[in-house]
Amino acid sequence: MLNNSTMSQRRCILVRHMPKILRMKPILLAILFCYLSVTALAQSAPQVSTTIQGAVMDSATNKPIGFVTVALQNAKTHAGIKSGLTKDDGSFSLKTTSAGPFEVALVFVGYKSKVIPVTGTSDAVNLGKLMLSQSSNQLQEVSVTAAKPLMKQEVDRISYDIQAEPDSKALSVLDMMRKVPLLSVDGNDNIQLKGSSNYKILINGKESALVAKNPSDVLKSMPATNIEKIEVITTPPAKYDAEGLSGIINIITKRNADQGYNVGLNTRFNTVFGAGYNLNGTLKQGKFGMSFFGGFGSNGTLTNTSGSTENIFAANTNILQSGITTQKGRFHYGGTEMSYELDTLNLITASFNLFSNNQNQFGPTNSNTDEAGVTTQTYTLNNSGTSSFTGFDAALNYQLGFKKSKDILLTFSYKYSYSPNKQYNANVFTDRFNYYQSDVPDFQQYNDAGNKDHTIQVDYASPLSKQLSIEAGAKAILRNNYSDFHVDNRDSTAQVYHQVDSLTNNFNYHQDIYSLYNSYQLKIGDKWAGKAGLRLEYTALSADFISAGVTTAPSYSNLIPSVSIQRSFKTSSINFGFTQRILRPGIFQLNPFVDKSNPTFVNTGNPQLKPELDNTFDLTYSNFTKNSINVDLSYAFSNNSIQNVSSLRTIQGKTKLDTVTYTTFENLGTHQTLGLNINTNMNITKTFTLGLNGQVNHVWLTGIFGGTMYHNDGFTGNAFGNMRYKFGASGYAISFNAGYFSGNVNLQGRSSDFIFNQYLFSKEFFGKKMTIVLVANNPYSKFNTFRTTINSTVFYQTSYNQNYYRSFAVRFNFRFGKLNSDIKKNQHGINNDDQKGGGGGSNNSGGGNK
After folding, report:
1. CA angle in degrees (0–180, nearest 5) for 645-648-650
2. Neighbours of 814 (CB within 10 A)
3. 257 Cβ contact list (under 8 Å, min separation 6)
4. pLDDT tens digits for 398-429?
5. Are the C-beta atoms of 488 and 572 separated by less than 8 Å?
6. Exposure of 710 by Cβ count < 10 A (0-12 exposed, 13-18 middle, 19+ buried)?
7. Each residue's pLDDT tens digit, 332-354
8. C-alpha Rg value of the chain to the nearest Å
9. In 3-state terms, what secondary structure has residue 163?
10. 3-state secondary structure of 139
11. pTM reported for the whole predicted model
């Protein structure tokens, strides 16, 4: 054992080397030095240690089993104390200074979990040979707090246990997603699944207002301690809406509760994004249960630079723009789930979610146009504006059980969603040269857009035998996407604004989807499992332009198949999946509002977009032993794909012609992706772990736009690595996370690559109930420059956005209360995963909970 003086000396040595790792400021290192020294001197006197050893054997063959997870727990509270893995000969040895009584839990894939009480009070306890018997349901036999497997492969999905990840107390949910197989986060904090943004994020199996618009905004402001696990559903079964998805990301929030309560408090202060606060907890009293989480904070005050260069070939014209934008804002979010058990067969549950983000921005943009090197036009656009997004949803579910079998369930569900998004911009021009007030006056933009949904659903699930089960249901989504917008030009003579009729409209897009589904799951022994189903959907559409008459889009029907097969081995499995999905455009792609915040580069939606049909094949190998590995090979293709495209348009003003770059969405050609993803987590030693998550894709894009056939292809990919070292039982730990993202390939161009790195130093207190974390994000550079290119037959464009890159943060996590069992939750409910989403860019304007 080390005395206090020796421990203090070793911590001083650690601090002397920290500048090489973190390169932090001297004052921060001085504070850290004092903190470590005081903590070391305050530690209690050495305690008597206890060593517990034994050997794990197969009960049928009497042969030793290696790599079995062995967890030492407190016998009264079942709280984890220490864990390790058996050697090749099945032996293990765990040493602890904690007070008993103890119990040892054994967990291994393919075997029943087992808990052995530790008897005796000697310093060394030998449990002898411990027998494990084979089983396919081993993880359901016992709750082992300290020995949760990090990942689990099921027949149609991969689940990543956030609570089994040691860094969950130090990172945000967005940070954790970088570690999850098949997921990546690019330079603008946009989430991708297998390199695609065509996915859906669900919260507890339901579409939620929390992630209705830009999911990265709320996920980087939410601590990972709020999350239980993240599921990546690679082959969405028939019960999910058939909207064109590369997969589904299902975020399961923590819902642990027993009689009593449990509350957690999380705070952070970031040098760039400011302060953030989060409260979460659970409550259980008799038949009533509730879980909740909520938070608020600052988006920070961010000043970013941006610019673009466009060369128009025909006239040898160059348009150069540069600007400075200052943004600041705040966010609020919250959610709750409640349940009441009328009796053992009748359950009522309800949920409520809310997210709001308010943003202000202002700044000038300078524009210069030249022909053959001679300046022909200049102006400065001073833009100021506000935007506010609110997402709200509420759901009510009734679940009926049957005395015949607890696995027969009938569920009735209703949900209401409302997501308004208001935008205002004021634009004033100065320093005009050949850019006349009569052609382009000062103007203001207003856009009140959003959607309202009513969803009604019924689900039935029942086992037909021990091997075969069935799920069936019906659903109706009644959706109204809307946009009420207008542009007001300023009369320079009267100094008043007048509404422009040609840029004014009230757009309503009704999309009603009626569906039936039926799926079956078959298990053959412990080795084979399969799931297959069909989903029939009928979509009724109508588009209402109040200012320009009424148009009705054609309705259509689709029959969507899905198939998943799993072959399990002793410690591994092979999965194959095929699914066909629909990609319906959302309000962002449909909205005809013309955004002229930058009048030289205009953006708008396209209400004439048609749905896209996707086909996805997926082959996965998973092995979860001492060093887990997951390898996924996938191929996806779609016709009539929705692409973001740009073209040149000539606008006739009162005095001269002007050329504008016009960007919108079109149904164009084909999109094919062949991808390989590899994820591994390695336990190098008991205190040192290493994780790698990498993906490489080859993308082929083809489409006809503006009478020209475009072809583009290329490799995209990403890699993320994490290392963590824990200093024994002291509660100290250091982590390093780093990643590379290659950028995207688009029909007309591509975006640049991005490198990410992060250092964490943490200390646990009070039996792991409190954690303090120091975080350094990208300490080597203050800004990051993100670039995109567009290649056309008539012009070439490059643009850049410079965002804040370096930041430092202090994070605090504290939890009190003691609860163990689950809040009762209905097993089926509404999952509105039918619209294109999840890929919206946030431009680093969210909560920044780094």
Report:
1. 145
2. 15
3. 282, 283, 284, 289, 290, 291, 819, 821, 822, 823
4. 999 998 888 899 999 999 999 999 999 999 99
5. no
6. buried
7. 999 898 989 888 889 999 999 99
8. 29
9. helix
10. helix
11. 0.70
